[in-house]
Amino acid sequence: MTAPSDCYTCMQEAAGSAAPPWERIAADRHWRVVHAFNSAVPGWLVLVPRRHVTALAELTDAEAAALGSWQVRLSRALSRVLGCQKTYVAQFAEAEGFAHVHFHIVPRPPDLARELRGPRIFQLLGVADDAQVGTEEMTRLAAELAAQLPR
């Protein structure tokens, strides 16, 4: 499948080493780990296939085999770096420009308000600029998480 020119994920993949550090925290042949750019939660990660895929059923057997390992490795890294008690995993890929399959790996901080737990944590994605995790913090977290994820 050819990647459409309006796919944010594919544009970042094509940027390679020119992409910001939080767009390339870790990767293998099949998957790339990025920090969500519009989140109020430090460490909100997104796991994306390196090729353009718009439905879970389109994953190859090799991509599918690596998926679970990545989710567990990322959860462990987030626990070590941020001290989160849990991580949430979700996949929708429905927003315009973001139809590329992607998995949200979201750390749940110990002090997260009860009304934001579970799926309600998505209220902390797509927040106003002044509430977003800043680029300096995303860069710092990218380095710390990368150190926890040996290649």
Structure description:
The chain has 151 residues and is of the alpha+beta class. The chain has a single domain (8-147), classed as HIT family, subunit A (2-Layer Sandwich), CATH 3.30.428.10. 28% of the residues lie in helices and 16% in strands. The protein has three helices and five strands, in the order αβββαββα. It has helices spanning 8-15, 61-82, 135-147; strands at residues 26-27, 31-35, 45-49, 86-91, 103-108. Strands 1-2-3-5-4 form a five-stranded antiparallel beta sheet. β1 and β2 form a beta hairpin. The mean pLDDT is 92.
How many DSSP helices?
Answer: 3
Query: Approximately what portion of the residues adopt beta-strand conformation?
Result: 15-25%
- What structural class should be given to the helix and strand makeup? alpha+beta
Reading off the top of the CATH hierarchy, the class is best stated as Alpha Beta
In round numbers, the mean pLDDT is: 92
SSE succession: HEEEHEEH
Span between termini? 27 Å
Spell out the CATH superfamily. Answer: HIT-like
In order across it, which strands form the biggest sheet? 1-2-3-5-4
Any idea what the radius of gyration is?
Answer: 15 Å
E-strand count: 5
Supply the CATH architecture: 2-Layer Sandwich
| CATH fold group | HIT family, subunit A
From the spread of the alpha carbons, the general shape counts as: globular
Helical percent range? Answer: 25-40%
**Poorly predicted runs:** none
Largest sheet: 5 strands, antiparallel
Q: How many domains is the backbone divided into? A: 1
